[in-house]
Target: Cyclase
Amino acid sequence: MLHRTGMPDRADPEGAIAEAAAKYSNWGRWGDDDVLGTVNFIDGAKRREAAALVRQGTSFSLSQRFDTDGPQKGWRRRTNPVHTMTDTGTDAVHGDQGFPHGFGGADDVIAMPLQCSTQWDGLGHIFDHGLAWNGRPADRVVTSAGDLVTGIEHLAAAVAGRGVLLDVGRVLGDDGELPDGFAVTEEHLTATAEAHGVAIGRGDIVCVRTGQLTRARRDGWGDYAGGPAPGLSFTTAGWLHRTEIAAIATDTWGFEVRPNEFDHAFQPLHQVVIPHIGLLIGEMWDLDALAAHCAADGVHEFFLTAAPLPVTGAVGSPVNPIAIK
Model:
C-alpha cells in the first residue's frame, strides 16, 4: 500500500493553506473578470476530442436520487429534498381541476438545499480569509441576493468534455472500498491512472471513486454526510493545479479526507482549490455502475456532460451527470 509523503505540519493548518494558496494560485490567469475558473480549460477542441470517445452509445447517470431517503441530517440547515404533489390523478378523477373536455394532469414541487445530493460546488462557495475566487472580496461577491459575480449559471453550458474515472477504491481498497479516513495522495491517483491505462491532463473532468457510497448503500447512511470518509489528501493540491484538470468529483460528501489531516481544521483543501485554483468540485456522485462497466471493458475514459441548473446567483447546484461510452 502506498503511503502519504510531503504532509505539512499537522499543527499548522493556516500556514499550510497559505503556502499552498500562494504556490498554486490561478488568480488573474484568465483575466480579472473571469467567472469560470478551471472550466476555462475545456475548449471546443477538447469537446470534439471527448465526443470521439463515444463508441458504444452506453450511458450512465452519475447522480443519486433526489428524495427524502438521502444522507442529510440537518447540518448547516441541509435537509433531504421534500417532494410535494400540487395536482394529482385523484384531483383529475374527481373533477377538482376545472379543465374542460376531460383534460387532467399532475403537477409537483420540490424544496431542497442546492447541495443536498449530487452537486457541484460553485466558485462562490468557499472563501479564504474573506477573499473569493480571483482575489475578490467575498462580501462583494456573495450577498443576500446571491453570488453576484460567479453564480453557478455561468457554468450552465460549459461543463462537457472528457471524463476519466479513477477507481481508487477498486485499485487500492479491500473489496473495492477505501476505509473512512483514508487520504488519497498524488501517488495513489497516479498509480490508479496507470492501472487503468489512462493519462490525466488539461480540461479533463476527473471522477474519483472511493467506494464510500457503496458502503453507505449497504450499511446505511450513518455519518456519510459530514462524518469520517476517504478522500483527497491536502497534499494533492499541487497535482490538482499541475494537471490543469477542469473539474473533479467524488462519491463522498466532502471531496477531501475526513477527519482532515490537520489539528483543529475544517476542509482545508477546499480553502485552497476553490478560491485560489478556481477548481470546480463535485460531491456525492454515484460512480458505481460506471465503475463496474469500466472494470469490465477496461476503458476508463468517456464523454461526460454535467451541466448545473442555471439558478441565478447560486453557489452550488444539483446535477445529473451523464457519462457516455
Summary: Residues 79-111 form one domain. The chain has a mean pLDDT of 96. The CA atoms of residues 42 and 203 lie 5 Å apart. Residues 13-24 form the longest helix (12 residues).
